[in-house]
């Protein structure tokens, strides 16, 4: 049963006090207290007696924001004075989560604010929980963007994040009777204290119309785009505060606005709705975040979103460049633009348009400037996720860009023809136009060709890029594809999410850990130390008790905090194989009932994650998790040895409560399909052991933590590819696994659906007959790996040794390391602690 406060954050969690946190600055407590009171009265318009926690959150945030502004202005001044090169990170998603805790922590003001609020009778943690998550992203890609911009600020890199200020972020998930329902998310409804509206920073964004050819006075031929529609992009800046507040960068988010707020003539003649249609159409662009796995419906709006934010961002940075340096030709020396996936890749054509049509740079030079400026990160190789646009749509919405893309393609194909005469297969494969599925523009190819570096996000993923989707392009442009394994910011995912563990690690590794993630390696010396294990287990238990309370409050289910917490949280997708986990849960349930006297240890299987609204298989997986939970949790013969819970509305804040409480981290994607994963890193950093496939960054995690400290199972990526080539044979796998056969029969036979055989017929049918994700092939190996987990859990010394070695070996997975690699190899900008020094 859902409780009324189910959507509130994990505010009720009593975490161990942050021993490592900077102590309150005595002389600042009183001024901050006064500022908070002044903000409450003058900006929020409330008095302390009637103010709600949300009002206090607003007042405290505005007080914290004041502290940022000076460093921000100073950072800007220094960048301008130093003529430093800037990095522009273009991303359709920034999954920021809550910001108050982040800002206070990075400013070193957490304890000072706690004391100031305490004087006023308020509790900082309660205020923090009143902040809505900024959920401007779907999952891994958006959260990565948030970690990377934080690391850029921390390393003092002059950078702008550019994105869209969605009125509504990722939908709120409510589960009714096991069925996911989506509700709009309303993070802005009470105002956003972290943003600065910039009403003076506005750009016109054009769509549609036609292109005319004309000649200049000098006889040069030029193209003139006469658009049919114009809307406005208005800037909102959110400060991104680096560690210790030494550097602050802007995250500039664009909001769409109609040029005219309403058609007054229509309004006056009584057509009140018609008078607003243009406004509604224009503002639809920044109305809502796309769940990326959406269907073709609404595709046009998505393309409009992409061009909208790209055009505004390029106009903004080109204007800044020309104002400062006077000449667009020096752009690559002073600006590096990172494309976060293909969503912003129309930027390649847009920059060409600006250079050629507006700045009158010759084509070849424009192309050199473009390639030297852009670089592109690929985040998935799944064919259904690779972005392509139907040419008729593209032509209608962006006619001049379509021409430019044809021209780029013509030059490119001509060069390929010269180098490889007669190779028609090669031409078709590297062309920006896909002729096989109705003519479409391949955005990945556009981004690849327009960039000097193209990167994957883990070692395996990068190798697969070179072999598969970008194989031919890689051979044509050797050296362009590089790897930049993802990372996570320790400030959020260790210091803030797990203050108890951070305090212990500071004792073990020294306070330097707070500034240098690599210092965490020193904890390895304590891997065999019983006393350290004891203290770690106390911290973990406290985190588990806190999570157990969240589970009780939200689901009315009691779980034993001494049980093994086995956690599978991420978007629900067939390739991530939550289904494999649920099927193993059923097998375990059967085994417990068959051998009730074996020495089982209690386990809690924890799931959370959202399914795209249109993704019916994923929604059915959620339903199955609930159906299995209902049976297992209420079966007295299980005697609480197994519990299954599905926490609704997974988001960044919930992740911060779940991850520090995990004993086991499920990273069980079909090998070759998860580009990297970053949750895997968060769990290992917090001391959970991983059960996983050799996929994405799991491979590098294994290399760092050692074979003995991770549970690897299943087919390798090359074996998966081989099975796909050879033809899938799940029926063979099922015939070889009586256990799996029994589990599938039970599900299909209605054992978990009150006898309803229809509910899971399709899902079971997929496993049996179209098992692209090789659930059947990996089942036995996964079941065995889980029994190895049982074995290891029985031996606490061994478990805690592994846990310490996981945490101690995660320094390399700091996003500071990731950003240093981008800075050196892709952007060519100096970063603190990097080998490239300022010139
Ligand atoms: C999108 C779609 C849309 C169509 C249906 C299938 C499908 C599958 C996956 C995706 C995800 C697209 C991009 C993305 O979020 N990639 C994630 O990026 C993370 C950061 O690099 C990385 O850790 C994850 O492994 C990767 O899935």
From TrEMBL:
The keyword Ribonucleoprotein does not apply. Its EC number is 2.4.1.1. GO terms for cellular component: cytoplasm. It catalyses: [(1->4)-alpha-D-glucosyl](n) + phosphate = [(1->4)-alpha-D-glucosyl](n-1) + alpha-D-glucose 1-phosphate. Its main location: cytoplasm. It holds the Pfam family Phosphorylase. Transmembrane segments: none annotated. InterPro entries: Glycg_phsphrylas, Glyco_trans_35, Pyridoxal_P_attach_site. The modification N6-(pyridoxal phosphate)lysine is found at residue 682. One of its GO terms (biological process) is glycogen catabolic process. GO terms for molecular function: glycogen phosphorylase activity; pyridoxal phosphate binding. It is an enzyme of class 2 (transferase). Its cofactor is pyridoxal 5'-phosphate. Belongs to the glycogen phosphorylase family. Phosphorylase is an important allosteric enzyme in carbohydrate metabolism. Enzymes from different sources differ in their regulatory mechanisms and in their natural substrates. However, all known phosphorylases share catalytic and structural properties. Allosteric enzyme that catalyzes the rate-limiting step in glycogen catabolism, the phosphorolytic cleavage of glycogen to produce glucose-1-phosphate, and plays a central role in maintaining cellular and organismal glucose homeostasis. NCBIfam families: P_ylase (TIGR02093). This is Alpha-1,4 glucan phosphorylase. It comes from Propylenella binzhouense. The lineage of its organism: Bacteria, Pseudomonadati, Pseudomonadota, Alphaproteobacteria, Hyphomicrobiales.
